[in-house]
Design a protein that fits this description.
Shape of chain B: elongated
Largest interface: A-B, 50 and 41 residues
CATH topology of chain B: Fumarate Reductase Cytochrome B subunit
CATH topology of chain A: Catalase HpII,  Chain A, domain 1
Number of strands of chain A: 10
Shape of chain A: globular
CATH superfamily of chain A: Catalase core domain
Helix content of chain A: 25-40%
Structural class of chain B: mainly alpha
Number of domains of chain A: 1
Oligomer: heterodimer
Number of helices of chain B: 4
Strand content of chain B: under 5%
């Protein structure tokens, strides 16, 4: 009997040694993202952004595919954030190659959903370790980037997109993609792999934009005049589509369902807004949505958590130092 | 009582190992481990409370009489410190999730509520506390194991044998 107890104790440690150490840790990844920049309290990636508020108006068409309450006919408010890629919260808006929309839905005390979407429809790489190398190449300069892409043919679809992408003159005119696939799970437990995109309902040419905060000023004025609307369109995978590879788009012929409209009705500077405190971890899912095994998606929770931990600690220190000085 | 002790030991060691792994790993199993850690954390706090009740209802075997009063005091204090940490670990873990607005799912059975509005300061407080308590718990467990081995191999008394 005594050996049984020791075996019980050793079981978890055997599991520990069986898992080889990861090639890149969350800490190293976030170290790379933040670089030498020191912007205490800000996100390590997509540091510059503006808070938005609004509601999702569901048409009910997705309710048969997912039991998440927000897909039933009706409206659900959200807190969101429009941002640009990069580690600098004061960077010029127009220099960033990627724009993003993040949303946070509080469906109830026990059901929340965070979404983080970007302008590219696919990733250039399929796993976080290679993603780390890609970011390193971007930081090293154009020659390193060129070298990286010749060594990574899986980047081809991303490069084809990047080659034809024209940045618009507004956050309101971009298409924001989930990139990673998720499963919709309905009340009967049936699941379906999907990707989604927030599709714009206006087109805005990139002219007459000036200054570092051009996009933030544009969206603030636009929302103040009239709500900004996106269609939330889901693409349903067929059995031959790989939901675990974020570098490959699914064919255009796949069934698409519009679940309703995302309506932005307010903007607030991020330091004054509700979005600044939120970790838009796309793996924070309500019942009715589940994660695929996509290695990039699976890596996002730990990386977001590390970034969030660092800036939360800095914000707490800042608040404590501030109250001591008063 | 013994099954309780060793089952709890296995759970606590697993939780600490999982916690240390999941905050660094970017591997595909990280998300699965994270969810398991949270679910077992809820189970752990229920077990800790059951164990405390069990502990208060039963008389423990007396400590060896040859121990000095000081050693007896250290033995008792370290056990209560252990119980305190075993309770504070899952509680701080839940509170950091609560303030980050992340409902804790216990498998597909039920979910614990989270704040409707994220409170990043309280998140930071309980996130750091959870980390510091983990280090303290590892320290107290090391002391606990060290003391058990000391009883067995140096003092050659019955303390470790009575737990097997």
């Amino acid at each position: 009997m005594k050996y049984f107890y020791f075996a019980l104790l050793l079981a978890p440690t055997a599991g520990l040694t069986a898992n080889a150490p990861p090639q890149v840790s969350a800490q190293r990844f976030v170290d790379l993202q933040q670089g030498s920049a020191n912007f205490a309290g800000f996100r390590r990636a997509h540091a510059k952004g503006i808070c938005v508020s609004g509601e999702f108006r569901a048409n009910g068409k997705l309710a048969d595919y997912s039991k998440a309450s927000l897909f039933r006919n009706g409206t659900t408010p959200f807190t969101g954030r429009l941002s640009i890629a990069g580690n600098n919260p004061t960077a010029p808006d127009l220099k960033s190659p990627v724009r993003s929309l993040a949303l946070s839905f509080t469906l109830s005390r026990t059901e929340q959903w965070r979404l983080a979407m970007n302008t590219p429809p696919v990733m250039a790489v399929a796993d976080p370790h290679t993603f780390y190398q890609q970011i390193k190449a971007i930081q090293a300069g154009p020659a390193a980037v060129k070298q990286f892409f010749t060594e990574h043919p899986e980047s081809n679809e991303f490069l084809a997109w990047a080659g034809q992408y024209q940045p618009t003159g507004s956050f309101a005119a971009e298409t924001y993609h989930s990139i990673n696939a998720f499963y919709l799970v309905n009340a009967n437990g049936k699941q379906h792999a999907v990707r989604w995109a927030m599709q714009p309902t206006v087109s805005v040419a990139a002219t007459d934009l000036h200054g570092d905060d051009a996009l933030q000023q544009e969206i603030t004025a636009r929302v103040a005049a009239k709500p900004v609307v996106f269609d939330w369109v889901f693409t349903l995978a067929e059995p031959m589509d790989d939901e675990n590879n974020p570098t490959k788009a699914w064919p255009d012929s796949r069934q698409q369902i519009s679940a309703g409209q995302i309506v932005l009705t307010g903007t607030t500077a991020q330091l004054e807004g509700d979005c600044h405190a939120i970790n838009f971890d796309p793996l924070l899912l309500p019942s009715g949505i589940a994660a695929t095994a996509d290695p990039i998606l699976r890596a996002r929770s730990a990386a977001y958590a590390e970034s969030y931990r660092r800036r939360a600690k800095e914000q707490l220190h800042g608040a404590l130092a501030g109250s001591n000085n008063e | 009582m013994r099954l309780f002790h060793w089952g709890m030991a296995a759970l606590v060691v697993s939780m600490l190992a999982a916690g240390l792994l999941m905050v660094t790993s970017l591997q595909p199993w990280q998300y699965t481990l994270l969810n398991a850690h949270k679910a077992f954390g809820v189970i752990a706090i229920i077990l800790v409370m059951a164990r405390l009740i069990n502990r208060l209802r039963h008389k423990l075997p007396a400590l060896p009489s040859e121990l000095s009063d000081g050693q007896k005091w250290v033995a008792k204090a370290s056990h209560w410190l252990l119980y305190g940490l075993l309770f504070a670990m899952p509680l701080s873990g839940y509170l950091m999730q609560y303030f980050a607005g992340r409902p804790v799912a216990v498998f597909d059975w039920f979910r614990l509520p989270a704040a409707l509005q994220v409170d990043i300061y309280n998140y930071a407080l309980f996130r750091e506390l959870h980390g510091w308590l983990a280090i303290a718990l590892i320290g107290v467990i090391a002391l606990h194991v060290g003391a058990a081995l000391h009883h067995h191999f140096v003092r050659k008394d019955n303390v470790l044998k009575s737990m097997l």
